[in-house]
Amino acid sequence: MEIPVIDFSELNGENRSKMMGLLHEACEKWGFFQVENHGIDKSLMEKVKQLVNFHYEENLEESFYASAIAKRLNNPGNTSDIDWESSYFIWHRPTSNISEIPNLPQEFCKWMDEYITQLIKLAEKISELISENLGLEKDHIKEVFKGDRGPSVGTKVAKYPKCPQPELVRGLREHTDAGGIILLLQDDQVPGLEFLKDGKWVEIPPSKNNRIFINTGDQLEVLSNGRYKSALHRVMADKNGSRLSIATFYNPAGDAIISPAPKLLYPSNYSFQDYLKLYATTKFLDKEPRFESMKKMANGHHGLHV
């Protein structure tokens, strides 16, 4: 299966409607896609990957193989409740914790901050395009996400070490993501990421040409009233390679109130009798304006928020 690729360089030209249609289909039928020509500095992306790999090799690799998780592979028994990963989480917005993470060099913090600043702009742009495709105001998702202090933005930095018995364990067990828009800078050599589509696991190849892999989380499924589903995914353990994953989460603020966008909801709390009255005069017209009229009527009668 060919994973959808959204070319951001096409969004300002004659192919814009084609790209917007492809993005809509990717969100509706896949729950994930790739972005190229996204405007993020490629040398910055490479620098971040190099520094993450170096930090892992110097500070985390040895302790991972000595950990309780690694030792469980040597003992017969159930290993379905563990993840074969070495990871840590960096908060960026509204406040940063990067200075509190052990053994991160100053250079790492500098490059990561620069990368995240550019990545947030990309996340906001994607949120605008998704809002537009849903027929909402372009700032709808941004406004919902921001709460009192702006969106929550954090990065899970993970390595999936070489695994001597990959048949016994997952790199990361099956799950959907809780938040909004997930932007993944991943390994360009080692595979392992898989997404479920139409009941089949699709292997996501390593990212070439500095593409960024995007998937949508549970909150976008709610905001879109179920039109854009969050997709189940997992990471398979690998015997031959150690996979890199730098996943940044553009999420709602903790105090953000989430609900389906009112514009996307069907009318509710009306009497069938009222509907029939309207139907009598609009039977041979499109139903959508009729539904909109019922929303307004219910709002007037019951004080509902629409």
Automatic annotation (TrEMBL):
Record field: catalytic activity: 1-aminocyclopropane-1-carboxylate + L-ascorbate + O2 = ethene + L-dehydroascorbate + hydrogen cyanide + CO2 + 2 H2O
Enzyme class: oxidoreductase
Family membership noted in the UniProt record: Belongs to the iron/ascorbate-dependent oxidoreductase family.
Residue stretches making up the Fe2OG dioxygenase domain: 151-252
Keyword Metal-binding belongs to the record: yes
Keywords on record: Ethylene biosynthesis, Iron, Metal-binding, Oxidoreductase, Vitamin C
One Pfam match: DIOX_N
UniProt-listed Enzyme Commission number(s): 1.14.17.4
Coiled coil feature spans: none
Signal peptide: none
Name of the protein described by the UniProt record: aminocyclopropanecarboxylate oxidase
Superkingdom of the organism of origin: Eukaryota
Pathway named in the protein's UniProt entry: Alkene biosynthesis; ethylene biosynthesis via S-adenosyl-L-methionine; ethylene from S-adenosyl-L-methionine: step 2/2
Biological processes, Gene Ontology terms: ethylene biosynthetic process
Keyword Metal-binding: yes
InterPro entries with a match to the protein in the record: DIOX_N, IPNS-like_FE2OG_OXY, IPNS-like_sf, Oxoglu/Fe-dep_dioxygenase_dom, Plant_2OG-oxidoreductases
GO molecular function, one term: 1-aminocyclopropane-1-carboxylate oxidase activity
Stored PANTHER family: OXOGLUTARATE/IRON-DEPENDENT DIOXYGENASE
Organism: Manihot esculenta
